[in-house]
Amino acid sequence: MHVLVVHNRYGSAQPSGENKVVDQEVELLRAAGHRVEVFERRSDDIADRSLLGKAAVPLLVPWNPAVRTELAALLRTEPPDVVHVHNVFPLLSPAVLAACADAGVPAVATLHNYTQVCPPGTLQRA
After folding, report:
1. What is d(CA 89, CA 18) in angstroms, rounded to the nearest whole number?
2. Predicted pLDDT of residue 87
3. Mind spelling out the 3-state secondary structure of the chain?
4. What's the whole-number mean pLDDT along residues 72-100?
5. Confidence (pLDDT) at 32
6. Which domains does the chain have, with CATH numbers?
7. Region 12-27: what's the mean pLDDT?
């Protein structure tokens, strides 16, 4: 099976269980004989952006058209059997799901937290 794993890695300054889960998933699938590719962004890369690029990041959180275009091109070139989406914030955005739909590639998502409905991801007030 050909699997594409999509993930926006959390900053390296903080340990991330989510990053670890993604790494382990890729390792386990490959060890089981599956072909696995990774489409990812790294939150650490925000620091390397220009001032304007950094200011634009919040605008890309809800929808990143450049990522949709890039992923759609990848999916057209060699479509996987399935796309497994993990974290899409802040650099990927839900546009990755639209790219999968456009290409007719099935996508599944693992929601490790509540960031889709609660920016801090905790689903708690106070």
Report:
1. 12
2. 95
3. CEEEEEEEECCCCCCCHHHHHHHHHHHHHHHCCCEEEEEEEEHHHHHHCCHHHHHHHHHHCCCCHHHHHHHHHHHHHCCCCEEEECCCCCCCCCHHHHHHHHHCCCEEECCCCCCCCCCCCCCCCC
4. 97
5. 98
6. 2-109 (3.40.50)
7. 95
Cα separation, 40 vs 77, whole angstroms:
17
Whether cis (ω within 30° of 0) applies to the bond prior to 58 is no
Q: Once rounded to an integer, what is the mean pLDDT over residues 20-46?
A: 98
Rounded to the nearest 10 degrees, what angle do helices 95-103 and 65-77 cross at? 30
Residue-level pLDDT at 113 = 83
pTM (2 decimals)? 0.93
Q: What is the pLDDT of residue 99?
A: 98
- Tell me the Cα Rg of the chain: 15
Residue keyed to tokens 């990927």: 92
Q: At 114, list the tokens.
A: 């509540």
